[in-house]
Structure formats: C-alpha cells, structure tokens
Specification:
With 407 residues, this protein is an alpha+beta fold. The chain has 2 domains: 245 residues, P-loop containing nucleotide triphosphate hydrolases (Rossmann fold); 128 residues, Beta Barrel (OB fold (Dihydrolipoamide Acetyltransferase, E2P)). 20% of the residues lie in helices and 31% in strands. The strands form 5 sheets. Strands 6-7-8-3-9-10 form a 6-stranded mixed beta sheet, sandwiched between helices. The protein has a 6-stranded antiparallel beta sheet with strand order 13-12-11-14-20-21. Strands 15-19-16-17-18 form a 5-stranded antiparallel beta sheet, with no helix packed on it. The structure holds adenosine-5'-triphosphate. Adenosine-5'-triphosphate binds next to β2 and α1. This is Maltose ABC transporter ATP-binding protein /trehalose ABC transporter ATP-binding protein /sucrose ABC transporter ATP-binding protein.
C-alpha cells in the first residue's frame, strides 16, 4: 500500500524549465499512466518519483513522508525500463536475484522470491537460462521479475513495451494487466506513447503538455469529456476533427453555423449572449456516418485506407480546407474521388471556445459525475532503480555491457 502526493513539483535543467506546478494525488493501488507529446517530461517526472532525478521545486510524498532527499533505494519503489538491461552472463534467476543479494537477503529468501516471481511471470522453465536464450518479451518479463522480487510498494514503468514487436507487445500488455490484478494494493505508474496501453491499463491517465498537467481522468472520461482541444486531439486515433464555425442559436442544444455553410446541432448548452461566438465543433472520426439527410460535413474523398474492420476516409489532404478523417465500419470500396455527406449524433459532438471545452466553462463540478469503471483492468510490473543502467554502461539488445567491473 502506498499513496503518492506531488505538490507544486517542478523540474528545470539550468534555464530550461521542463515541468512546473505539478499537483497530483495518486491513491494506493492505482494504476496511473503518464502520456503526452514527445519531450513533455513524462520520463523526467517518473525519474523524479524514482529518485533518479533531483526535484527542482515542490514536494514528493509517499505515504505522507517527504521523499525529495531520500535515496532511490529507500523509497520503496522499483522501476522497469524500456531497455530491459539484463546482465548477459547471469541466468534469469540470478538477474532477478541481483538486488536481493546486494541487500544481503538469505539464500532461502532469494530462492523463495525468485521462485514466486518466476511463477507469476511464467518464467519457471527459463530460470536457469541466460538472457540470450530468451525472446524480447521474455527478457522484459525478467526485468519485471527483478522488480517483483523486491516487493516494492510502488512500481514505475518507463515505456516497458516499446522495444517489443506488435504481437509481443499485446501479449505482454495483457500479462501486465493480469499482474496488476494479482497485486491490487500495489501502486503503479506507467509512461507510454501507446494509446492502447494507456486506455486499457490505466485507472487514470495523466495527460502532460507544455510543462504541466493538461487533464487527469479515467481513460473514457478523457475520451468523452476532454477539457480542451489538445486533450481531445491527443486521446483517440485518428485524432478528433475540428470544424470551425459560429454559434447561431443558444439553448440546451446549440446550433452552430459552420464555415462553408453547413449547420450542426450540438448537445452542449450555451446561453444568451453566446450568439456569434467563434467555436470549433469536435467530431471523432469514429462518430461520423454517411447520411442522405443534413450533413455536418460534406466533401470529396481524397484517399481511403481499408483496414478490414474499418475504412478511413481522408478529406482536404491537399486542399485549403481543414483536413478531415472519417472512420466508417466495414469495407467501402470505390469511395475515392466521390462526394460524401457525413453526419454525427449531436450527443457525440464536442464544442470548444478558444481551445477550451464549453462543457467545463462553469467548472467541471457542474458536470454530472463521470462514472468510473468498477472492474479496474489495471496491471503493472516492476523493477528497481538499482537496476538502472549506470552511466558508462552500454545497452545492446536489452543486455547491459558494463564498461567497468560488474556491480
Ligand atoms: N539532462 C538534461 N538536460 C537538459 N534537458 C533535459 C535533460 N534531460 C531531459 N531534458 C529535457 O527535458 C524534456 C523532457 O524530457 P523527457 O525525456 O522527460 O520527455 P518525455 O516526455 O519522456 O519524452 P519522450 O516521449 O520523447 O520519451 C525534454 O525537452 C528534454 O530535452
């Protein structure tokens, strides 16, 4: 059991401010995923929690205890890295046992812990193998095993699956979810670029952007109720389309006159005085469908991509109009070059003013509470800061090639 509290946490490298004003409470047993554009500071935040980076400002508490100046080994955390960084001359069991041996655990304790981790990760048949005789997925499971043997309160994962091929990634993702389910009281924080990992593993996703937190919420809450255009376009793939226009009629349902002459009804309230307000309607590609009636969008299909279960239609890719993508279920041959009329349910549409969702303009508290999922599909894995490759180590194919004597 471990809860974490970050208060006004900041990170700068000299004059470069990477993160600021990070306030975040993480409950014991939660699976938290950090996402955000490349360079937004996800790994830096994780490494500050691990103690591998100094915190420039603010406070990190674990279980109410200030951790800013506590060394990584005393924080009760373990970290799994993208480069699983195993010692090539050690067996799977010895790789997993390494930190325990350093910590002076007895032979019996080491044996019990590695047996248990091997069983949890289905590595039992491989315990006496060297890493070179394992697949990439198995190697990453050993790295996770190294975390498990230490039985940390908090597991940190830095893009653990990004070195794996697509099929292994799916399999390992599912294993992580199962692992978390088997350790409901362990807190897990996970950095990824992968939308599917974020959506399927997280109890809550933290979207980082521009050095701060853009939004924190359950995966489907971010999908259905993004606070702003950035989150709206970051969560979901392909990204949400934005159609510019002006408010024409206000009320519980807003009528928007779209640039180009079409109109759309959006089931988001506006009030007297909002008439004429410049807005963007947000419509997810998967919410669009063909219509014979009144469309919210009409255009000539520039390009199609048939993915089997869905077909992507691209509009305005080489024109002056806003590019639009629609995702239609099934196979739609022969649409390229055709004029298509598309609509969407008013309840599926979003409405933004100056980048912010109008849903939130009177404060998020005025929204009916979002129903969190009850059966948490959480999952995670582990490793320790002690497993971090040292400066000077080279990592090739996930194996540490130490420059100096082995630790
Ligand atoms: N030692 C350093 N000195 C100066 N700037 C640094 C240092 N380490 C990281 N940064 C900068 O901090 C920012 C955040 O880096 P970080 O690796 O945390 O981003 P990220 O969101 O994890 O990115 P990615 O998704 O690409 O892995 C980047 O702009 C990076 O250039």
């Amino acid at each position: 059991m471990a809860d974490l509290r970050l208060t006004d946490v900041a990170k700068s490298y000299g004059d470069v401010h990477v993160l600021r004003n990070i306030d975040l409470d993480i409950a014991s047993g939660e699976f938290i995923v950090f996402v955000g554009p490349s360079g937004c500071g996800k790994s830096t935040l994780l490494r500050m929690i691990a103690g591998l980076e100094r915190i420039s400002g603010g406070t990190l508490e674990i279980d109410g205890q200030r951790m800013n100046d506590i060394p990584p080994s005393q924080r009760g955390i373990a970290m799994v890295f993208q480069s699983y960084a195993l010692y090539p001359h050690m067996t799977v069991r010895d790789n997993m046992a390494f930190a325990l041996k350093i910590a002076g655990k007895s032979k019996a304790e080491v044996q019990a812990a590695t047996d248990r981790a091997g069983k949890m990760l289905q590595l039992t048949p491989y315990l006496d193998r060297l890493p070179k005789a394992l697949s990439g997925g198995q190697r990453q499971r050993v790295a996770i095993g190294r975390a498990i043997v230490r039985d940390p309160k908090v597991y940190l994962f830095d893009e653990p699956l990004s070195n794996l091929d697509a099929a292994l990634r799916v399999a390992t993702r599912i294993e992580i979810a199962q692992l978390k389910a088997s350790m409901p009281d362990r807190t897990m924080i996970y950095v990824t670029h992968d939308q599917t990992e974020a959506m399927t593993l997280a109890d809550r996703i933290v979207v980082l952007a521009g050095g701060g937190i853009a939004q924190v919420g359950a995966p489907l809450e971010l999908y259905e109720r993004p606070v702003n255009e950035f989150v709206a376009q970051f969560i979901g793939s392909p990204a949400m389309n934005l159609l510019p226009g002006r408010v024409k009629a206000v009320g519980p349902v807003t009528t928007v006159a779209l640039d180009g002459g079409l109109e759309a009804e959006v089931a988001i309230p506006t009030r007297a005085g909002d008439e004429g307000m410049a807005v963007n309607i947000g419509v997810r590609p998967e919410d669009m469908r063909e219509t014979e009636g009144t469309p919210v969008f009409e255009g000539t299909v520039d390009l199609t991509e048939a993915l089997g279960e869905v077909t992507l239609l691209y509009f305005g890719t080489n024109a002056e109009t806003v590019p639009i993508i629609a995702k239609l279920p099934g196979i739609h041959p022969g649409l390229k070059g055709r004029r298509v009329r598309l609509t969407a349910d008013p309840h599926a549409l979003h409405l933004f003013h100056k980048g912010q969702s109008l849903l939130y303009r009177d404060g998020a508290d005025s929204l009916p509470p979002y129903q969190p999922r009850t059966a948490a599909p959480s999952g995670s894995m582990g490793g320790t800061a002690a497993d971090a490759p040292r400066t000077g180590d080279r990592i090739e194919d996930g194996l540490i090639k130490p420059e100096g004597p082995v630790r």
